[in-house]
Amino acid sequence: MSEESDRRNFLLGGSALAGGFLAGSAAAQDKPPAKDDPHAGHGGGGKNYGPTDPGDRYKLTPGRRKSGEPPVPVEHPDIGKLPWKMVNGAKEFHLYARHMKREFLPDQWFDVWGYGAEPGPKGGHSMPGMPGMGRAKENEKEMALPGMPGMPGMAKATDGSMPGPTIEVVEGDKVRIIVHNELPEATTVHWHGLDVPAAMDGVMGLTQDPIPPGGTFTYEFELKQNGTFFYHTHVPMQQAMGLVGLFIVHPKAAWDPPVDRDFALILQEWAILPGASVTNTMSMEFNIFTTNGRAAPYITPMVVRQGDRVRIRMVNFSVIDHHPMHLHGMTFWITGTEGGRLPVTAWTAHNNVLVGVAQAYDIEFVAWNPGDWVLHCHMFHHMMNFMSSMAGSMGGDMKGMLAGGSMATGMGMITRGPALNPELGGTLGRGTGENTGSDRAVGNGPMMGGQPGMKGMDMKPPGTKGTDMKGMDMKGGASVPGFPQDMSGMASYTAAELKKLLKPETRGMRNGWFADVEGLTTLIRVLPPDLYDKVVSGKGEVAPGASVPGAGAGKAGGHEGHGGMKTEPTPKGHEGMKMDPKKDPPTKKDEHDGHKKP
Fold first, then answer.
1. Which among 204, 156, 207 is positioned nearest to 181, based on CA atoms?
2. Exposed, middle or buried: residue 570 (CB in 10 Å: 0-12, 13-18, 19+)?
3. Which of 222, 243, 285, 587 suits a disulfide with 144, CB 3.0-4.6 Å?
4. What confidence tens digit (pLDDT) does each residue in 342-381 have?
5. Sign of the alpha-carbon torsion through 84, 85, 86, 90
6. Quick check: helix, strand or coil at residue 111?
7. In whole angstroms, what is the distance from residue 386 CA to residue 407 CA?
8. What angle do CA 456, 561, 377 make, to 5 degrees?
9. HSE on the CB side for 112, CA within 13 Å?
10. CA distance 273 to 83
């Protein structure tokens, strides 16, 4: 089954659906249903929510679609969709668990465990020194995101991704998922939140034998629910390596009021120290946070048309931390959890929702307020990439018991011999920062250092008192307790890295928009129809700052004025993210073309 037909027919098990997925446009809504459409008679016969008094904060205000129509496909930035074939009355999927590389930030690659839709490049285990490592960094090929012609945004599912590719099905479907283990140790898969037979639950030993390296196991069950679910290994430490994916079950007819756009996000956290490429799964403290496998500002923004009704499904697969997710600019309604859809009477209005570990929340809102808005965790340390680690002596005499251990100690890294070494006695928790312990701060993020000559830092000539950073008043600031605290100045990007950050989905954003967009943050861009059409089509010039009314274009050069960390010049051809239609033609027409202006 081709990618195109798979996307178009996932709701119908292969039957054609005329006009269903194109219902985002007024023209599509007005077309009569095709005779062979199983949903015929439902397209326009349901309740049509008219204009609603915004005094209800748009609780039941629809977008452009009518009640009774099929749901729109879910969109999942930066991860793929797992393909299926109809075999003996069931939608049959193949899922391959294996090691792969994931680029959390531009040119920052890490070792993770994820899932693919086909065998590894050479089959077998994908571990160092073993078959399957030949294309480590090629495991993250990009393809066009449905609904965003000419735009990257989804990893190619066949090559594998972390999180794994999304399984998208319909209530009532019978599914068969054949799991292939390409890891060097046993694994299982659990279907989180789904009511399945006990033998299909995926708990090693209790409900099934472990899937050995090189082995397979077939899970088969009928879907009797709808909502936001996910699949993951049930081996705890493997979960911390990234073995997770979305499992979206649509109702046969869209929930009321129907949404125009349906997004899904997986939140994760990692403990990765300087020089390491593997997360410390024993850690209870974390220093990098990802959404759909990307740390901000690398996550692909969600781009919607002003007036769309939008659903965002959030799954928290972090190791230990809950995340209070805050949306700027608009009130949203909590409409569902990992237990399914909530009755309308139970919906509550928020702009912040606490998504606990292993929980899912669906939120909905009408995108009425134009601009570029952040959706981010409000835990302060979760809004940064790579907090500073402590390494090496500051010098001077230290007397008495240390106030805290180093970050390595706090993260559970054993650095002084075996676990029973008497020198590994207790300390009084984590150190509180520079000048409070025997270590000095050494950054562990891109272009971060802490030593004289650090890239991007302008130092005073030798012999000059004090150390000066552009944009920082080191002399005066040093007299203010707590200075410095502006972490946005502690990272900068090369021209090559900027080229990766400045995706087509960022056209029209202010210069330097990424200065305060880090960690567990993503973006939702609410664009007026004419600007939306330009951005999603890749056609026409879009000036920097066009998407933030009244804010101006912003400073060219990115981080100038933010701690002295100056970016290299914007890559040629990306000024304001202008695109040449001849060089960057839009992709072929697909099911989301209905979101473009007729």
1. 204
2. buried
3. 587
4. 999 999 999 999 999 999 999 999 999 999 999 999 998 8
5. negative
6. strand
7. 12
8. 90
9. 31
10. 36
